[in-house]
């Protein structure tokens, strides 16, 4: 801690005390010029702030997001953004219902599990060392959703997330 009471490392702005506090310093003219320039810059910034157009929040769609029932378990899909489409009908289904159904269909060996790998696909993943999940291999890829099929139930959801 420095002895001048300011604290921190103030080497850049440190001035030695000459014993005369009321005597004007040599750099007063430079400081006055700099302050005038700074005020001019500030004034230009104020003007540009007023000229800048204000951001207007986009309007949300009037239709609320519907929460349909899962055709497999009959319960309401509370978070429609996590739903995945049924392979045969294209209706929204709970992600956990799909995961449970795939787990029942596939025969899993030791250290195997079913994982969502993206793009509407699941995979049978083998983890070589279960405590360390960085080393794994995908044994089988299961295509669940077809990318070419556009589901009508996803359009209202995309309007909420694609506003800006």
Order of helices and strands: HEEHEEEH
> Gap between N and C termini, in Å?
50 Å
Work out the helicity level.
25-40%
Biggest beta sheet attributes = 3 strands, antiparallel
User: If you average the pLDDT, what whole number results?
Assistant: 77
Strand order of the largest sheet: 3-4-5
Number of strands: 5
Strand content: 15-25%
Radius of gyration: 33 Å
Note the overall shape.
Answer: flat
Characteristics of this structure?
two-stranded antiparallel sheet, alpha+beta, 164 residues
SSE layout and pairings?
Blueprint (H helix, E strand, L loop, with lengths): L27 H24 L32 E2 L6 E2 L1 H11 L6 E7 L2 E9 L2 E12 L11 H7 L3
Antiparallel strand pairs: 1-2, 3-4, 4-5
In short:
With 164 residues, the protein is of the alpha+beta class. It has three helices and five strands, in the order αββαβββα. It has a domain of 82 residues.
Structural write-up:
The protein is α+β, with helices and mostly antiparallel strands. The protein has a domain at 80-161. Helix content is 26%, strand content 20%. It has three helices and five strands, in the order αββαβββα. The protein has helices at residues 28-51, 95-105, 155-161; strands at residues 84-85, 92-93, 112-118, 121-129, 132-143. A three-stranded antiparallel beta sheet has the order 3-4-5. The protein is flat and about 65 Å long. The mean pLDDT is 77.
């Amino acid at each position: 801690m420095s002895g001048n009471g300011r604290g921190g490392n103030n080497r850049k702005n440190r001035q030695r005390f000459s014993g005369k506090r009321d005597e004007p310093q040599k750099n007063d003219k430079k400081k006055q010029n700099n302050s005038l320039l700074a005020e001019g810059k500030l004034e230009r910034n104020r003007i540009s702030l007023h000229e800048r157009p204000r951001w207007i929040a986009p309007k949300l769609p009037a239709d609320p997001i519907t929460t349909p029932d899962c055709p497999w378990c009959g319960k309401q899909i509370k978070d429609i953004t996590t739903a995945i489409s049924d392979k045969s009908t294209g209706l929204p289904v709970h992600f956990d219902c799909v995961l449970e159904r795939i787990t029942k269909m596939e025969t899993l060996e030791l250290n195997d599990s079913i994982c969502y790998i993206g793009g509407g696909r699941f995979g049978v993943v083998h983890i070589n060392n279960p405590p360390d999940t960085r080393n794994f291999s995908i044994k089988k890829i299961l295509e669940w959703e077809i990318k070419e099929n556009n589901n009508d139930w996803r359009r209202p959801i995309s309007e909420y997330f694609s506003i800006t």
